[in-house]
Amino acid sequence: MKRFLLYFLLFPSLVWAQAKVDTIEVYSPAMKKSLKAAVTTPSDYGSSTKKYPVLYLLHGGSGAFDDWHKKVTEPGIVNKMAEDYDLIIVTPGVGPASYYFDSPLMDSVRYETYIISELIPEVDKKYRTLAQKESRAITGLSMGGHGAMTLAAKHPELFIAAGSMSGVMNIDTRMWKVPEDFQTLRQTQQRAMLGQDLQYDAPFSTYTAVGLVDKMKANGIALIIDIGVDDFLINTNRQLHTMLLENGTPHDYTERPGAHTWNYWTEALPYHLLYFSKHLKRQ
Q1: 283 assigned to some structural domain
Q2: Is residue 138 part of a domain?
Q3: d(CA 112, CA 102)
Q4: Which domain holds residue 108?
Q5: 3-class SS of residue 239
Q6: Residue 203 lies in a domain
Q7: What is the CA radius of gyration of the chain?
């Protein structure tokens, strides 16, 4: 008993402070289906009346809405980030290899519309959020990094900051260090969503991050990009970094030891939260 009491006195927040995770379903009129999202609120959410900034945290190409809660190498890190930075974290689920864009050909791929026009308004309605650009950020891993960067570039009225961890900054699989059969598979999926006449060379398609660098400059959104030096997508990140340097877009770019793994993303997440904390406005 004395040992527990000493632990409580030294670390009260560790004993009592616990973020809460809700699983919600949001119906998409655009796609005529419901999709799940996890919403993590800090421990003081239920006992206060204040409103909170929000981070949208996106999963990768074959992932799901609960990846950030189940696959991280530090269990509970999303809860910890929500607690440490006193904000709401939303992890939505989307279809595999869908890149978070609206396909001009497939009614089942309207994930830009879903995130921007359906999910965000629903979260703002159901939770006490600071429903303004200055209090909203977005980031993600792999395909989610692509989604975060492109959605923020296209919708600067909604986000103050955006990030990418190991992101697909160019959907041209010729730049990916992967086997040829995987390149072919992804190209086939991309052409099914975007059309057989999809061009991969400059001027780049606005369906991919490198095609939106002028918008990134004009929008002035705070950007953080990182990639592991052993990641198969590193060339696409270096390409975007170079293009942003060339057009004078301020951004934070880092290459660190690591590959396309959950160990890397688990370690990268706190860096993104620290960066976003400098830009998110509070009540």
Answers
A1: no
A2: yes
A3: 5
A4: 20-277
A5: helix
A6: yes
A7: 19
